[in-house]
Amino acid sequence: MLEELKDAYGTEWTTTLVDIMKNGQKSDWFLRLDPNGRIPVIVDNTQDPPFPVMETSAEMLYLLKAYDKEDKFGFKDELERSQCLQWTFFWHGSGAPYQGQVNHFSRAAPEKIPYAITRFKNETLRVYGVLEIQLSGKYSDAGPRDFLAGKGKGKYSVADMKTWPWVKGWERTGFTKEEMEPFPNVLKWIERIEGREAVKRGIGEAYTQS
């Protein structure tokens, strides 16, 4: 989102990379910003004193209100705004936790537990199915959508920004092309967002540590 704000408004910021493999997020300096010890955190240094924001959805909504004055990535219409919030919170509460558990039990857990892997994979695929329903326009007269929220085909918004970084990693999570076949509109949505210049930068070298 910061990269999108840069293209839209010239927004500037600095980045501090935190080494989670060395538990940098559990250091006292970080816990002062986020007592939960999770990345990412943003700090608005234009406030006095500087104002920290934790939890990605809250961070994006903060940036939307404070730095997207024209609602390029949000909505002025209250019903569209509500729809944007619904899909943002849907992924925050119903998508990310399941896919995160697939990643953990498939790659990080010291013991492979088939039941856990199967349960969370199935739940993640179910959630992908919910995204597919929305993007396919199955229950709408408007037909397939380009984005999750907004009238008609929708508008690229924080709801997409929140959801896309997880879903685009379906192969890394361990899903096969065959398992993704039921979600053609999700795959098109992934590709559509992937082509944005700000998105390319947002997942690029500036945010990785060698």
Features:
210 residues, mainly alpha, Glutaredoxin, Glutathione S-transferase Yfyf (Class Pi), Chain A, domain 2, 2 domains, 10 helices, 2 strands, Glutathione-S-Trfase_C-like, GST N-terminal domain-containing protein, Glutathione-S-Trfase_C_sf
Helix amount: 40-55%
In total, the number of strands is 2
User: Any idea how many domains?
Assistant: 2
By CATH, the architecture of the largest domain is named Up-down Bundle
Radius of gyration: 18 Å
How is the quaternary structure best described?
single chain
The overall pLDDT average reads 95
- How is the CATH topology of the largest domain named? Glutathione S-transferase Yfyf (Class Pi), Chain A, domain 2
Family: Belongs to the GST superfamily.
Domain GST C-terminal: 77-210
Organism: Friedmanniomyces simplex
Protein name: GST N-terminal domain-containing protein
Describe this structure in words.
- By secondary structure, the protein is mainly alpha-helical.
- It folds into 2 domains: 72 residues, Glutaredoxin, CATH 3.40.30; 123 residues, Glutathione S-transferase Yfyf (Class Pi), Chain A, domain 2.
- Helix content is 54%, strand content 4%.
- It is built from 10 helices and 2 strands; from the N terminus they run ααββαααααααα.
- A hairpin with a 6-residue loop joins β1 and β2.
- α4 runs antiparallel to α5 and α4 packs parallel to α6.
- This is GST N-terminal domain-containing protein.
- It comes from Friedmanniomyces simplex.
